[in-house]
Amino acid sequence: MFALNASLATRVAGVAAIVTTGLVVSAGPLTAAGSNRSEPLAAEAAAAPVTQSATRETILLADDHPALFARAAAVRDALGFSRGSTRSGRHVHDALQSSDYDEVAEVDSSGQPLSIAQFDAAGQLLAAVSFERPVNGAVTVSRDRAFEAAQHGLAALGLAPIGQPRTQVDDASGGWEMHWDRTAAGYAVRGDELDVHVAGDGHIHSLARVQHLLASAPMRLIGQTDARNVVAGRCGTWFNGSGSGFSIQAMDLEWVGPNAAFDPAAVGEAAAPYRLAWVANVKPTGAASDVLRLVTLYVDAGDGSIIGGDVVE
Fold first, then answer.
1. Which pLDDT score is estimated for 172?
2. Is pLDDT of 25 > 70?
3. If you write DSSP's letter for every residue of 236-259 in order, what string do you get?
4. What pLDDT was estimated at residue 44?
5. Full DSSP string of 13-30
6. SS3 sequence, 102-165?
7. pTM of the full predicted structure?
8. Every domain of the chain and the residues it spans
9. Is it the case that residue 4 has pLDDT exceeding 50?
10. Which residues pair with residue 38 across a beta bridge?
11. Cβ contacts of 57 within 8 Å, gap of 6 or more
12. What letter does residue 272 receive in the DSSP assignment?
């Protein structure tokens, strides 16, 4: 599903050592899950150090990629960004983030970028940011006016987030930050979100979006009791003996990304659509709690199989 990075490999090795020393007795391997998030946010992309070995760029020309440049122009106009004298495009492969995205920049007559828009392989907007909006100074626009500006821009893009956003004043840059968590069929989509920053002058300064493909919801859902029994059975094999135990802290239905947390054979497989699952947080007790703080398991809400999770040391 993804290549192990150095920090994740260290975590996996640490948990493997726990199993080997007998603090956690396991009938199967217990490894740490990696993040399913692959989309670059504009701010992160700008701040991240770029090395030749980690990132590969390919120039994209408007004549060869008219649909991409048309999408970027639509984003520019919807968000009220300025039109540049020219536009440039590039395809970026980021090995560190295990991501690929296309980027189009509006460029002024001096060669400086006015704004950028980034898209995933399916053409979905990932991020857009203007470099000419004021980013310092006191807030001069009300929350209601900022919300109206955000709604207007999102509607022009065909985006309709559900519910009211969490809002806060952005003291560092001025304006307002607005954040929506994604839901589908009434359930949270883990990690999916939409963020809009409205500058102090009332114009949208940036937008960042994380949205994964969802599988179809199961025709019938297993109940929490059945899912709890699956979790208890698996954890019973992991924390059985050596003075260790566990308690199940919470269980909720969420859309989650299947991963290789408890299935080493699945490491390196392509990312799969998110599935509806019971998410169980399990707290190790006894000797195991000295080395593991929390284990999260994803139990498929349809067939009851364990499809991933995470480990917190």
1. 72
2. no
3. HHHB-BTTEEEEEEEEEEEEE---
4. 40
5. HHHHHHHHHTSSB-SS--
6. EEEEEECCCCCEEEEEEECCCCCEEEEEECCCCCCCCCCCCHHHHHHHHHHHHHHCCCCCCCCC
7. 0.76
8. 6-36+217-312, 42-210
9. no
10. none
11. 90, 91, 92, 93
12. P
